[in-house]
Amino acid sequence: MTKEIMDQNQIKRSLTRISYEIIEKLQNPDELTLLGIKSRGESLAKTVAQLLEQNNPETKINLYDLDVRKHRDDDRQEDVTNDIPKEAIENKTVILIDDVLFSGRTIRAALDSVSEIGRAKRICLAVLVDRGHRELPIRPDFIGKNIPTAINEHVQLQLGDTQAVILN
C-alpha cells in the first residue's frame, strides 16, 4: 500500500520553514555552504539555497552536490570524487541536506566525505523527513517533518513535475 504523506505544497512549506530556521540559528549566510546529498538531497538543497538568497538578496549561497558512495559501508565505490573546492568547506558552516533520515549511515558517510575535503567550522544537518530507527548517534538540526514508521516501511521523495513524499 502506497500513501502520500507530503504533497508538493507541504514540501515547499517545510523547505521554507527550514530556510528561516537556518537564518535564525546561523545568522550569517555569507559563511554557509549547502551540500545536497546525492541522489535526492541535491534538489532540496537547491530549493533551500534559492529561499535563503530570496531572503538575503545580497548573499550568494555556496551550493554543491555531495556524493557519499566512497564512504558508504554497504556500497563503497572508491572511484567517486566530489568537485567541491576546499575553500567551500574550510572555516565555513556546512549544512548537509538530505531527503530522508533513517539509520544515519548516509550522514556518517557524508561527514567522512566533508572531512576528506576540508575542516568545516561547523556541520549541521537538514532533512525533509526524519523517520527514526537510527543505528548511529546522529540527530538533525533542521527537520521538515517527523514521520513515525515501522522498520520495514519505506519513505521516498518522489521527484519530477509533482514532488511528493511517499510511504510504502
TrEMBL record:
NCBIfam families: PRK05205.1-5 (NF003549). A motif (PRPP-binding) lies at residues 94-106. This is Bifunctional protein PyrR. CDD domains: PRTases_typeI. Residues 2-158 form the Phosphoribosyltransferase domain. Homodimer and homohexamer; in equilibrium. The keyword Cytoplasm does not apply. It catalyses: UMP + diphosphate = 5-phospho-alpha-D-ribose 1-diphosphate + uracil. Keywords: Glycosyltransferase, RNA-binding, Transcription, Transcription regulation, Transcription termination, Transferase. It holds the Pfam family Pribosyltran. It is an enzyme of class 2 (transferase). SUPFAM superfamilies: PRTase-like. Belongs to the purine/pyrimidine phosphoribosyltransferase family. PyrR subfamily. Its EC number is 2.4.2.9. Also displays a weak uracil phosphoribosyltransferase activity which is not physiologically significant. One of its GO terms (molecular function) is uracil phosphoribosyltransferase activity.
